[in-house]
Amino acid sequence: MNEAASDTRKGSKGPGCLLNGFAAVFLLAGLAAMYFIALKPLFHYWQTDSWERVPAQVLDSRLNRSTSDGSTTYSVSARYRYQYQGRTYTSESVSLYGGSDNFDDFWQRLARRLERARLAQQPVLAWVNPDKPEKAYLERGLRSGSLVFGFAFGGVFALVGGGLLFFFNRRARASGNSEGGGEPVYNSNQKSGHGFLIVFGLIFALVPAPGYWPAVKGVPQGDYAMLFIFLFPLIGLLVMAGGWAGRRRYKFFGPTPLTLDPNPGYAGGQVGGEVLISRTVPHSAKFTVSLSCVHQETRGSGDDRRTDTTVLWQSEQGGYVESGMRDSRVQFCFDVPGDLPPTYQRGRQSVYWQVSMEGEMDGRELHRDWSIPVVQGDAGSRFTLPESHVEEDRREREEAALASAREQIVIKRTGLGLTVTSRAGRNLGLKLGLLLFGGIFAAVGTFLLMLALDEGGMLYLMAGVFGLVGYGLVLITLYMLGRSLQVVIRGDEVRSRRRWLGIPLRQRRMRLRNADQLVLDSALRSTTNGRVQEYMNLYAQDESRRVRVAEGIAGQQAGEQLREELLRELHLV
């Protein structure tokens, strides 16, 4: 058996248990926070709805302070006397909420109210259980700060923990589908992803359910902050809708098992295979297959723990389709450089290889990926694609890249010289996604700030974190949406002018005398459905300076085609 594959299996148990334990801590911490901080008071509120209110005399009250690590939390202790059905009772149960906290100034306000009533010898109203009159509360109201903190932070922790557990175990199952020498069939990682979304969306919608009616009842009394709770069913329904749509797509194309040959694949040789689709694919359908080598490293510990992910190499090609009477097979074959690392997991570092495929058929989009083992070697694959298909695919990709480059960047000759224009508003999908993400964070930060002005406490910290991220991202994205770049090349002189919403910002100049001075560089990477999209910038440079000629070119191949066309226009090739 191959040493690298053996090393992967030997090292996988310990790190896998550690990762699952780490994810379980997040999940349990989130569920505990949701239960004790938000759900438990909601259940108590619902249970005490039929309790009766009677006058009570405050005998003693005090505000308790507890300081730890520079943070002060509060609680209230009190003793009071009341009468119910002719009998006198004494109780020390103050509120639906136990323990101490500093979510808001709830405890301080309650302590002041009780102390004023005690000093003035004025009665307060207590909620009494008619079935067990010895049980009572002085304060039965719900706290919006506690609900926000419990559901928002507890829900996020629970979703992150549950998602990590699903992700870690999905990869373990995928990598365990087949090792070298076994049956070379692999299941896609999307096998149960839609089920995960449906279940967690349902949980997100149902967990806060006890608070929906109290929130509606609180609106006529001016407690509009309680309406925040309705964000959770909205998010839950959206997540469920995404999961249901994914389930329908999954059923349409079927389980799409991948047969790998050689098994495992070889860095220095080939990675080939075929994907089975459970229906006849028309000749007009196109499927793109990509192969990625990804490095992951976990750094730090505790609150500073983070995982860095880097795509070391990625290549894509058009799949070769063979259609039958009831199903179809999409074949691929990659030549893999020998200097890439094999699949491994040692301590905090790992390398995994992933095959991804996407396409469209009858208006339904297909996105699937498979985790596969790859070792060092030079073996080839039996899935060799026809030379005519390979040549046609190469030509189509070059033509598509050139068309994309011309659509993104405008090159034309004017009386001033050769003009290269990077218009404002390009790559709109990426930027609108960033704007939406930042807008949501900014809106939540603003909402939390409004709550903090009334209730104080930790809400100020939460508002600051959400607001800083949200408004910062919104401002950066608005700048990216409005900026444009115009470059004029006349003779060997390059002049660039940066504008934002048509307003000139700065100008730069330099000399461009040979092809080596025109350099393509990666500016940004985004990963969607396992595929990496690079955004390129084109520079003119010499020993002392670097002037940007074109920016935000989506796709490395489009950037390369743009560079070649520009060199032809400048007669530098």
Spatial arrangement of strands, main beta sheet: 3-2-1-4-5
Got a strand count? 25
Strand composition percent: 25-35%
Low-confidence stretches: 1-15, 178-182
Question: What's the main sheet like?
Answer: 5 strands, antiparallel
End-to-end CA span:
51 Å
Q: How many alpha or pi helices?
A: 10
* Average pLDDT for all residues: 83
User: What is the helix fraction of residues, given as a range?
Assistant: 25-40%
Structural class: alpha+beta
Radius of gyration over C-alpha positions, nearest whole angstrom:
31 Å
- Globally, the shape reads elongated
Tags for this model:
single chain; 573 residues; alpha+beta; Immunoglobulin-like; 5-stranded antiparallel beta sheet; 10 helices; 39% helix; elongated; disordered N terminus; transmembrane; membrane
